[in-house]
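INFO  loader      accepted 1 record
INFO  loader      residues=206
INFO  predictor   begin
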Amino acid sequence: MKVITSAALVALVSTSDAFTFVTSTRKLSCSSQSRTSLKMGLFDGVKDAFSAPALETSKLDADRETPIDRWMGWNVKSEDEMVAGGAAAPKDFIDSMDTANYVTVALKKPMGIVFEENDEEFGGIFVLSLTEGGIAAENGSIQPGDQLVAVGENKVGGLAFDDALGAIIDSQAEETKLVFFRGSAKNLYGPTGASQDWLTEFIGSN
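INFO  predictor   done
INFO  writer      dumping tokens
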């Protein structure tokens, strides 16, 4: 190889990993450590090129993570983060299609329940209060605010006050079965409320 007599240091790089540095007075051979350092330097350059801010802030599903993702420093979104990143439910949301949010009780009359009607946009009636010492209060299952959904096998949710209360008055059973939803009228009758088909099936199987 021709020796370069310029005072500047010249680096000649070949694909066969033979690296030679030549100065104006002597020839130097690169050590294996120098070759490794230079090669890693080249890969680091590739890494830097692909690690643009847009990629650093990107999120990948956890099950799609690969070794190259970890090496490049790309963020991986965990399952918990994916759930947390979804649309948050309102703080007062109660699922009206969850059977755990319903109460069923069988009571004799007079029950000692004071009912009130919901706002006109929803319809139906709810428990305003319980008469102290009354059957419902002594039973302990019903709470003020509970929405009346069914009387016996009859669905009364959404009915006018007189119609819903009339179902209790007309009941001939020794003990009348009442089904209540423990949540607000909005949760029961609003956009996120239970479908009528679901309510019918639930009441029939309860």
